[in-house]
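Before our next group meeting I need something from you. Please put the record directly below this note.
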Amino acid sequence: MIKKKLIKIIDNISQKKITDVFLDLIDVDTVFLNYHRVLSNDEFQNTNRPDDDLVVSAQIFDKQVNYLKKNFEVISINDILQKRDKKRKVVITFDDGYLDNLKNALPILEKYNCPAIIYIATSFLDNKMVPWWLKLWKIIYSQKKIVYNDKSYEIIEKKDKKNIYNLLSKKFLLLNKSQQDTLLDEFLDHKHKEQININEFLSSENLKDLGDNDLIEIGCHTHTHPNLKILNKKEIHKEIINSVNILENIIKKKINHFSIPYGSKNCFDDKIIQQLSEYNFKTIVTTEHDIFKKNNCNKIPRIGIGNLDINGRLHRKSVGIDSILNKIFRR
């Protein structure tokens, strides 16, 4: 109860003039918003998934973009160094390259004439490779028991499935692609050894269409979406060069922007940022919580946006208050 009241107070304060004055004093000008998926309303209601952290419904996304358009200046990532006019600025970003970005998010962005950038993990294109998190959840959801580290887990109830998914996700984050595939195979019981078919990602033709859209910028998100911190310098180079070459060959444009896979501090360090800087990307974004400084476009913080982020809560995140509080109290 106390926490809810405190959050409501912060929501109200974030919309006051005094907050604008404070943010100007600490030089908060632009906030980067991080999305992943925008599901149709039916799919949002009826699809089983471990959480809603990275998912919004089309109905809520429409409300969010409408609110942002009225209360902020929604800008292209290519315009972040321009001087702010009257409204505070936000940049809308999407990670991974899900098909619903085209089907559900784009019509809403076009409705309000709001630009966005979509970072593509190129091995996901044409559904050639399925990311471990989708495979893992499909395996967990289809089975009643899973064995890990010689321990058997009963996962009949939804909450048990979510718990084991969260436990294993932390493990998968520290594994390379080969290790992840091996572990996934071990989890599959004999009844579910068939190929896991998941068609959630953009095709090459979809990507070409997005690249031709004036509202959409395409960015690099590596080839296989690895944790860069567990790769050596040569492996990181291969991930970036392969991805950039594929993207530029499809959209026939230079790739100027990069998003670090996972984006948290346990997935990159200063040495990795230094290496990434050698590829002359104009911006490199993370998922760390901090204040964006225009003199440092090689480690840009972003704040995640979910289905509960509307009105005051969305405003709080979009002006940068959430990022500041998270940096102070959580990280």
